[in-house]
Amino acid sequence: MQQKNNPHSFHVPVMGIAFTIDTPIKIAKYGISSVISIVDDIIIEKMNEYYSGKFKIPYQSISTKVEDYRAKRITSYLNTVDIIVKQKFENLKKSFEQKNSDFEKYMEMLPDFSELKQNFIQTFQHNKVKEDFSNWIQNNLKQGSIDVNIMTKLDKPNYSKKDLLPIEFNDAHAALRGFANSTLESSVVLSAGMNPRLYSYFENFNDFFPAENNELKKKIILKVSDYRSAIIQGKFLAKKGLWVSEYRIESGLNCGGHAFASDGYLLGPILEEFKTNKTVLIDEIHGILVEALKNKGKHIPSAPLSLAITVQGGVGTHEEHEFLLDNYNIDSIGWGTPFLLVPEVTTVDSTTRKTLQEATEKDLYLSDISPLGVPFNSLKGNTNEIIKNQRITDQDPGSSCPKKFLVSNTEYTERAICTASKQYQTKKINDLELEELSPSEYAKKYQKITEKACLCVGLANAAFINYDIERKGEKQGVAICPGPNMAYFTKDLSLKEMVDHIYGRANVIETKIRPHMFIKELAMYVDYFSKKVDEISDSFNVKQQKYLTSFQSNLNDGIEYYQHLFSDTKIYFESNKETLLSELETIKTELFEIEIPILVKA
Q: Exposure winner among 115, 182, 280, 292, fewest CB in 10 A?
């Protein structure tokens, strides 16, 4: 079941740059937690101006000429969000006497098994005293958490004119400082792997250390792909006196945004490992934490601090949601992609929402468009893609690169540039023309260069469009990054409809043909494995053979785990057990039809 502090058993994860930029303002008052991306201080500054004006909050613009402007912009916007959410939540609590009020909506949307809901019904079944209502509401209702996300690898160094600034002015470092200096009492979600220098920077902020009451004012959430990654990162932070309050497990492929594929480890077995080892994880890391806090002369909690295990990636039905909660003792489940069709929750322009509604399985694919060189979940026909392709047709590929958040390439320059930029692609194409290639080989390499997309602008543009905020520079359209799950959601939904779907009070999926989330992920991994074999068959070596053999073996272990799970779990798979087992057998056959090249010894 979900944690007592959390009224709901689901959360809305970060999506893109703009799609959840203001989600807490929309839904935190209902007790629903969500995550803001704090990668882009440009859109954050614009949103701060917009919402300060809307809610008549004093606003002071922060110019790029101001020292530490990036962190200050982030702090200012997060403080604005905090003020708005607290005010909305107070208004909701006062609305309990009104019919069809926000308070009524709050209570209606809670899961039926919620202790809060049951307590309310039992307490006030026969009690109509207004003062008692008011006291109960003040003592029991909780707002959703206003969490933030930092992609740890987006930590480019910054310059003042030509002078390199100290490391604390790097992008991710400044974003962390922006959050740390804000009034929020919430969590920072760290995604995209370990950044030791950034992790060490947390030690500069007291809010991340336990207070005398054993509470953490600000918490750390790690997005992880497996148990090994969790324990390595958890121990690293514990040695600095920092506790990880939540491990947020995400499917390697069946997710939105960047896809960090595992070496064939599947979600079910990963969750099983966390379930089996949770006590060990807590005890081991608590021991390290105590020692570190002692050495720092800081307060030592008398018992381990709370630890949540959450999961996200591909969940789409009430049955899947319930199974994850019950079978793996999960604290909360991330529902991302389906909420892109809920205008009350996410910020998506109407053109993109229509394209999402019409998307089929073949329109949702794992692309190579990210300048980071990491596979990226994409939607065919998005406006960013249309504009990018038109530039290619006009023989003018590449973006002007106005924001530079994804710069990483130093092939041609001392200071990193972005592989989606006009600057990089022009140089790369010029080099390509010097090679003596066949037309087909040239076209293949040209396509590989020009497919990179300007995600900094593309993933932020929906907010500019929705709120009619002025944009400068060339058109980029809207890039969007739903998970494959989008194919099964086909219409705009209200918040209540989506929440009722999650809790089994309604069903908004119209198609009857939707694979189980575990089956879908497995099929994606087999497809991914097949492409990996094709990719490296020309330059095959011992290391690659070992990697592919291990990958195939891990997938096979996962299939065996699911065979036992579907056969032995009585409640959840009784009605469709035969279908699931048959699908597993088909996928297993496909897996072993993929031939790993054999090294011929000289």
A: 280
Residue type for 97, please? E
C-beta separation of 102 from 94 below 8 A: no
How far is it, in rounded angstroms, from Cα 33 to Cα 13?
8
What residue has token string 């109960």?
Answer: 136
Listed residue (197, 186, 177) closest to 68, CA to CA:
177
Inter-CA distances, 486 with 274, 281, 355, 453, Å: 28, 34, 11, 21
Q: Which tokens sit at 503?
A: 């809790």
- Mean pLDDT of the 521-528 span: 98
The SS3 call for residue 172 is: helix
**Percent helix / strand / coil, the chain, rounded to 5:** 50, 10, 40
Number of residues that this document lists for the chain: 602
Q: pLDDT digit string (tens) for 414-456?
A: 999 999 999 999 999 999 999 999 999 999 999 999 999 999 9
Residue 497: CA count within 13 A, CB half-sphere = 15
Cα 420 from Cα 449, distance rounded (Å)? 8
* Total-model pTM: 0.96
Helix (H) or strand (E) holding 345: none
Q: For residues 367 and 274, what is the distance between their CA atoms, to the nearest angstrom? A: 30
Strands 308-312 and 244-250: parallel
For residues 227 and 271, give the distance between their C-alpha atoms in angstroms, rounded to a whole number. 8
